[in-house]
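Box 3.1 A note on notation
Throughout this textbook, protein chains are presented in two layers. The first layer is the amino acid sequence; the second is a token string describing backbone geometry. Keep the layers aligned when reading.
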Amino acid sequence: MSRKVTIIGAGNVGSTIAYTMAVTGLTSEIVMIDVNTAKALGETMDIRQGTPFCAPIKIYAGSYSDAAGSDVVIITSGIARRPGQTRIDLTQTNVNIIKSIAPEITRYAPDAVYVLVSNPVDILTYVFAKVSGLPENRVFGSGTLLDTARLRSRLAEYLSISQKNVHAYVLGEHGDSSFVPWSIASISNINLVDYRNGLNYKGVIHPDLDFDEIEKYIRTSGSKIIGRKGATFYAIAISVCHIIEVLLGSTNTVMAVSSMMHGEFGIDEVALSIPFIVGPGGIKGNVLPPLTDEEISKLQHSAGVLKDVISQITL
């Protein structure tokens, strides 16, 4: 069965997503589109020359028209913050890029599911949902999926346990107002705190859970990586490929991605991350976890932060 994915943006993130999909055999056809045509040609050529050792795949650089028939379109286009540039200025610049992309790509791939990865991802997801004219269930952002992966990775380190046994989320904005709803965090279906208190692991000393340190770790990981190597792209590429695997598969999965809110927890007219049900065709619904009053307030605060940004940009 043919499975076609288009990636808009051939920078570090877009090209690493393409490479990861090719190596893992997630899809049978990848199109890369970028205003820098030479960069897209170089990235696809480099990946293509290694594909004899992978599952059969067709990968090439193209234009918007080549996106026709895509099952999924991933948007990674955007610019990084420049010295002296305000967050609002950066947001408006990337909003303008998304607004220019939307009519061009949807003309040729009107039936695709669109995954926004560019930052600020929640704002750009909101904008694309508003300007594209597509059903909202076929537009969502990577949201706090990467933050959630960082959280689970950190908890696994604390508890010397497989990350697959860790069930916890980062919710809200993919940014400073995100938070961890600790009340619903668990290890193998056991409440996180109860698990730690009942842990009987001979020969290994486990540190006490430091919630503040863990949340700081999540929020500062990106900047630390950028400071050390210049950019972050491996973990987000793996996260996006997990989304693609679900979209092209046959089973629904609950994950923290950014989608439009319509009254959940008293929040609407903004896109942010809560546990959404994702499957073939896009967003199927959501799961409203039993958050505490304090956690609901944090989620509403995060929505307010995003709405404040939206009020200052031109759509």
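The longest helix spans residues 87-108. The first strand starts at residue 4 and ends at 8.
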